[in-house]
């Protein structure tokens, strides 16, 4: 397996500490289906699978966008560009990013999302928990955007989808545990692990930039075939 693809799982696993802080309020209010403990576990499992499916779809889209750069022979440029994008994402103030998202996403879509979201939370079926997970995967999240940049750097829709799928699976253990424990996840986790995201993001950005520079360093900055001719 390509080491860049495998790195997506590590990013998800390490970043899941951030996820549990940001999505803690959501998993605290997940509807509880009446029935056995098996049904309760199955519902939380489906919620997390729903998130992973959404991440995979975003990965396919990111890989497709990145493919246009590779098609033009700019694999190195794409990798450096994605690294720069991640750094900019970290240093740009949060309120600026929130304002930009509000301008990009039409209010009608936001209202429709909220309405559908509310209907799912009023139900307690396995299907609704899966649906909540699907929608959760599309919520604005800095860690997801960083992973999408990595998926775009693959330059391939299928690899991008696999990249984000492994990212989602990396978040699985902590998020599943959090959704099962419920009340043990709170605001405190968000405060503790929030600083981890910028540090991890900068490391990922540097690795992407080094890879694009094609310095001939094994694993970190391998030389591209075109550079070896």
What features would you describe in this structure?
With 229 residues, this protein is mostly helical. Helix content is 77%, strand content 0%. The protein contains 11 helices and no strands. The longest helix has 35 residues. The relative contact order is 0.24. The model has no long low-confidence stretch (mean pLDDT 79).
Q: What fraction of the residues are assigned to beta strands by DSSP? A: under 5%
User: Any idea what the shape is?
Assistant: globular
**Major sheet attributes:** none
Oligomer designation: single chain
The string of secondary-structure elements, in order, is HHHHHHHHHHH
Mean pLDDT: 79
Helical content (DSSP H or I, runs of 4+): over 70%
